[in-house]
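Board notes, transcribed. Complex of a protein with MV4.
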Amino acid sequence: MADKPLFQRILVANRGEIALRVIRTAQEMGIETVAVYSDADRNALHVRRADRAVRIGPPAPRDSYLRIDAILEAARAEGCDAVHPGYGFLSENARFSAACEEAGLVFLGPAPRAIAAMGDKVEARKLAAAAGVPLVPGLRQEARSDAELVEQAQKVGFPVMLKAAAGGGGKGIRIVHHEKDLLGAAQLARAEAKSAFADERIYLEKYLARPRHVEVQVMADRHGGVVAYGERECSVQRRHQKLVEESPCPVLTAEMRAAMCRSACDLARAVGYLGAGTVEFLWSEGNYYFMEMNTRLQVEHPITEMRFGVDLVREQIRVAAGLPVAPVPEPRGHAIEIRVNAEDPDSFLPSLGRISRLHLPGGPGVRLDSALYRGLEVTPHYDSMLAKLVVHAPDRAQAIARAIRALRETRVLGVATVIPAALRALESEAFRSGDYDTGILERITKAPPEPMREVAMLAAAVARFLNTGGPRVAPAGDDAAGALSPWVLAERMERLGRRPR
Ligand code: MV4
């Protein structure tokens, strides 16, 4: 006989692949789920897979997935006892966490105070400093006067970076190379911060050239227990949108990893954290510096799950129910995640349309977290991420080979995806060497095309298309015959508005 479930019924306040992800774990734990959906998501998989589903409004997020009142009303009407916020939307909204608790619902995340403290980057910096976590040299406080700003900038030395206290994730940052530009930049930064966040406070840090983005996954329980599940390397990004993440970080020594994990746990303890969180660091020339803490489960959490053999959503549910966090298993092998976004692979601009054909990858060490189905309409209302491909292998080289193999198996027709860009990154010398930084994707994207190779591939594809007389369900094979296989050609023709054959 199974134990009594930890909760009766969880409301999943999200959509897409993360809503499905949460529903899956809840089902395994014998917990019922309630989905919420906007009119755009009537036919979505999260709606079909949940035990129940409640419409909360029109497509625009502010009219649906961001409506605290509508979501709490759905939870009340359906008799829920807990709420999972997923990521994005209301996941880092202190008012939502508070409103859940006030409505007698367990919020599967940290308390409002911890969310608010980490949402304020200046407050987070103060807490981190007090907990002995290394910071980028700079101001401990918000810059209260121009004189203070100039004095601090001179002390840490140019270039410096101005950041909005209420910012994060790349919003409201500015690099200043010369003292003569400092006060002008500060004025602009304040104005920008005021209009974007209704909070004009800014602070100053030494600018680190070509850092890596390395983050630590933590989990905290209600009894003072805090654990870390190693790190994730997230430097393969463009304009603060990550594309590929891996774990472990290829350049971390065991000592550095232990120190980062200890710092992350110290910060979590210092803010009285509960549940899953991520402490982001900048890594530069063998040193690490606190950047910010994200008070949610992150998109890239599956690479941690694969390497540690844990289910982080299960742990979130267990600690929220008052159980102590389970011991952390020994990590094994190497994991890589690729985000499958509906975007043009060159410009990274959103690509909209209906998924007309779909072939999803499988095989050893492959996990696909996806809400994709044939017929899905990709609309401009939500994030462009359609799915996440996650692979796990005994070592890094095998993980890269596996990721490339699985990406080549994947076929999404009807919208453009970033799969070609991800393949370019995985195949690049910079990525293979492990010696890369946050500029990697920009450098690869800017690299001049190889005309002869392009021509050769096109010629091979055209020849094959003419020979076969149309698309076949064929493996992509090698570059010349495969990267532009009949499937890919069919996709291109379809995008030109013509049906092949
Ligand atoms: C920095 C930095 C260099 N030096 N701070 C960008 C997002 C925001 N959370 C902080 N960011 C950065 N802060 C100092 N002192 C470089 C970045 C940065 C970055 C950081 C992580 C991942 C990608 C990035 C891309 C450009 C700049």
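The pocket of MV4 is lined by residues 136, 161, 168-170, 173, 205-208, 211, 213, 237, 240, 282, 291-292, 438 (CB under 6 Å). The two ends are 58 Å apart (CA to CA).
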